[in-house]
C-alpha cells in the first residue's frame, strides 16, 4: 500500500462522507487517513555497503544466541556436553520439549495465557474510551488527567512494588492471577492511551464534523467512525500490552507464591539451579516454548505494530 | 450518566475518561504516594506497618551498599544510553529502507524483543557458563582465559550491560525505524540536488528529523535502565559480592529477601526521584516539553 494512495483516498473519504449520512464514513481500510496530503518518504534507495556491514554484524550478534537456543533445545544432553555449544545437533530430538511440558510448564503457559488475555482486555476496555475522550472532549479535567498519566511513562514500576504489595494484600488478592493482572494493566495504560490518542488524532476533523452534523452522538461516532479507523492502533496496543504481560516478572514474583499461580517467566527461572547443574537443553526448550506465542502474535500484527509505534513515538 | 454520554454536539463527555483515570490512580498514583508514607514506617511485609519516624531515612546514611548500588546504577544507565543509542540510531535508519532483504532482516532483529528478561537471562547464563558455554571458547580470545565473565567482579557489570543491550536494541531500533520512515523524501531529493553525499544527508536531514525520537527513546532508555532488575537477579543475583547490586535489585532484596519494607520504601523513593529527574532533565535539555509533540515543518 503506497502512501500516495493513502493520502489521496484519505482526502476523498473526507469529502465523500459529506454526501450520505453515515454511509461513507466507516469502511476505509485501516491506517488509511494518515495525515492527508503528506508526501511519502523513502530514506535510502540504493544499498549502502557501510550500513549493510553494520547490519550484518548485528545480525551475527542476534542470530548466534538464537541459533544456540534452538539448536540446544533439539539435542540430547550428552550431545550438548560432548559436542560444544554451537555445533549442529547430532540428531534432532523433541524429548526436551516433552520433559518441559510434563514438568508443569504447560500449567505455567496456561496461567500466562489467562493473565495476558485479561490484561489486554482490561487495558483496551479502559484505554479506548479514555483516549476518545482525550481527543474529542472539551473538558480540561480530562487533559489534566492525561498529563498526569503521561508522567506514568517515566515511573519505574519497580519503585512502587512495596505499596502495590500492600495494596494487593489488603484487597485480599494476594497469590491469585488477578493480583498480577491489576498492576500490570495499570502500568500498561499510559502507553496504550498514548498510542490510541495519536491514532485518533490522525482522523481528519471533517469526518467527525460530517458525522455530528448528521446528528450522531458520541457513542455512534465511536462505533462507526473511530473504532474502524483506529484498528491498527488497537492491534499495536494489544501486542505491546501482551508483550508486557507475558514477559512480566516482578509482579508475578512478588504478588504470587504458590506453584498453581506461577507464570511462564517464574517457571523459566525455576529451571536455573534445578537438579544441581542446569539441564541446558531442557531449559532452552522452555525458553522456546515461552517465546512461541508472542512470536506468532508478532508475525501476525507486525505491520500494525510498526505503524502504531510510529503514531505513538516516531514524531 | 446518560446526559453526560450523549451531548448534543456529539462529543464524548469527561465521564468517558473516568474509569481509566480512577484505575490508574488506584494502582499507580496511590502507590507512589504510599511509598513515601511507607518509607517512614517499619514493616516486615506481614501484619501492619508501624510509624517509625525518620529511622529509615537516617539509616540511608550508614548503608554500606547504597553508594555502590547508586554508582552501579548510574554507570549502567549512562553506558546503556550511549551504547544503545549509537547502535540503534544507525541501525534503525538502515532498517527503514525498503528492500526485501531489510524487511526479512528486521523481523529477525526483533526476535529478542519478544523474549522475556527471564528467558534472556537464562539464555546468557548458559552461553556464559565457563565450563560448557560459548564463553569457554571465546573467553581466551577476548583476554579472559577462564571464560568466567559473570564470576569476575570487574567484568560482571559489563557483561550485564552487554546482555541488556542485546535485549533492548531491537525495541529502540524499531522506534528509530518507524521515525526514519516518516522523513519526507523531498528533503533527500533536495539534498541530493544540492550535492550532499550520503553522510552529509544523514547529518543534515535524517538526524535533525529524528530529534524527537532521540528524546523519546532516551527517556525510555534512562527509565528502563533504572528498572533493569530481573536480568541481573537471574544472571548474577547482585554478585559476585555486590559488584552488580544495582539500586532496584538492592531495593528488591531489602524488601522481599530481608523483609525490611520500610527501608525498601526509602530506596524506592530514591528510584522514583532519580527516574523523574532524569526524564525531566532530558526533556528540558532538549527543549521538548511534551512527549507527544508533533514533528515540525512539512
Please describe what this structure looks like.
- The complex is a heterodimer of chains A (315) and B (298).
- Chain A has 315 residues and is an all-alpha fold.
- Chain A contains 13 helices and no strands.
- Helix content of chain B is 66%, strand content 1%.
- Chain B has 15 helices and two strands.
- Chain B has helices spanning 2-5, 18-38, 55-59, 64-95, 100-109, 111-114, 117-127, 134-138, 156-180, 185-193, 198-209, 211-227, 230-235, 247-257, 261-285; strands at residues 41-42, 50-51.
- In chain B, helix 4 (64-95) packs parallel to helix 9 (156-180), helix 12 runs antiparallel to helix 15 and helix 14 runs antiparallel to helix 15.
- Chains A and B meet through helix 2, helix 4, helix 5, helix 6 and helix 7 of A and helix 2, helix 4, helix 5, helix 6 and helix 7 of B.
Summarize the structure.
The complex is a heterodimer of chains A (315) and B (298). Chain A is mainly α.
Q: What integer is the average pLDDT of chain A? A: 81
How large, in whole angstroms, is the Cα Rg of chain A?
24 Å
Strand-residue proportion of chain A: under 5%
Oligomer state equals heterodimer
Portion of residues in beta strands of chain B equals: under 5%
Q: What low-confidence regions of chain B span 5 or more consecutive residues with pLDDT below 50? A: 1-7, 290-298
Give the helix level of chain B as a range of percent.
55-70%
Instruction: Give the C-alpha Rg of chain B.
Output: 24 Å
Count of helix runs of chain A: 13
Number of extended strands of chain B: 2
Please tally the helical runs of chain B, counting DSSP H or I stretches of 4 or more residues.
15
- N to C succession of SSEs of chain B: HHEEHHHHHHHHHHHHH
Terminal Cα span of chain A? 21 Å
Largest sheet of chain A: none
Distance between the termini of chain B: 42 Å
Number of strands of chain A: 0
Strand order of the largest sheet of chain B: 1-2
Please give the most extensive interface between any two protein chains, plus how many residues each contributes: A-B, 123 and 118 residues
Give the CA-based shape of chain B: globular
Mean pLDDT reading of chain B = 85
